[in-house]
Design goal:
7 strands, seven-stranded parallel sheet, oxidoreductase, Short chain dehydrogenase, Rossmann fold, SDR_fam, NAD(P)-bd_dom_sf, 273 residues, globular, single chain, Sc_DH/Rdtase_CS, 50% helix, alpha/beta
């Protein structure tokens, strides 16, 4: 699939999985634009990666989100791939109000679900236009294993990532009614990571490991995840199309389980998934 990507925007690409995706796509010779909240991190990446384009903004500043999208599309009219990756994770107990402030829950859901939904709305018409003219276009959205297999230690994170999964399905169903060229050229790919060793859970890792006790499981090393991700990225469906989900490790297991169960239900109703 990497061969169909020429210019890619990675939203939320200055740390963790996002940063490594930026580095790998850049190493593959792709034109890469990366966004993030931290200008210092963006500057460091740009200094290390020749030709990297950066845009600094916060995806939960909804009053300016559309203007940032418009600016990117004006600067890169041939943008054929958008990867929405920004996310934060909180761990708390519903029975302990002191474990998290309400505002933190609001920001987590805004970052993980509201912002991706608005970004899909903002970029989808552009990608549809390219696809309708015969140019392959791809929209990646990052959900999580926890979006398909929620766990009580991360309640609002699991719920928000389940929402991202639903957005991916909904967009595919809308593309199915957008014309033959769009159906042929516009792909929506859901990225379903397992537990990966990044800073996503740095605030509560020790506490959640302790809460799991002997059932605690270690995170996958980041570079191992990236290597497996790019291997899976170039695998295809039986019809030769890009894979609808890229699941690695536990992510692959939950994706296959979903496909074998709820996916069959959608097929019975003749709905795209």
């Amino acid at each position: 699939m990497t061969s169909r990507i020429n210019t890619i925007l990675i939203v939320g690409g200055t740390t963790g999985i996002g940063e490594q995706l930026v580095r790998r796509f850049h190493a593959l010779g792709k034109k890469v634009i990366v966004t993030g909240r931290n200008q210092a991190n963006l500057t460091t990446l740009a200094q290390e990666l020749n030709g990297l384009e950066t845009r600094q903004f916060d995806v939960v500043d909804f009053s300016t989100l559309q203007s940032h999208v418009t600016g990117i599309l004006n600067d890169f009219p041939n943008l054929d791939t958008v990867l929405i990756n920004a996310g934060i994770q909180k761990s708390f107990s519903f029975f302990d109000p002191s474990s998290i402030a309400a505002g933190e829950i609001e920001r987590e859901i805004a970052t993980n679900l509201t912002a991706p939904t608005l970004l899909v709305q903002a970029f989808a018409p552009h990608l549809l236009s390219l696809a309708s003219k015969g140019t392959p276009a791809t929209l990646f959205v990052t959900s999580s294993t926890l979006g398909l297999l929620p766990m009580g230690l991360w309640p609002s994170y699991s719920a928000s990532k389940a929402g991202v999964h639903a957005i991916a399905l909904s967009l595919r169903q809308q593309i199915a009614f957008a014309g033959e060229e769009a159906k042929k050229n516009f792909d929506v790919v859901e990225i379903v990571p397992p537990y990966v060793d990044t800073e996503l859970d740095k605030e509560h890792r020790e506490a959640t490991i302790a809460a799991q006790g002997e059932n605690a499981f270690p995170p996958m090393p980041l570079q191992e995840y990236i290597d497996q991700f790019f291997k899976a990225l170039d695998e295809t469906e039986a019809d030769g199309r890009p894979k609808k989900e890229i699941g690695v490790g536990m992510g692959a297991m939950v994706v296959q389980t979903w496909r074998d169960s709820f996916g069959k239900v959608f097929e019975q109703f003749g709905m795209a998934t």
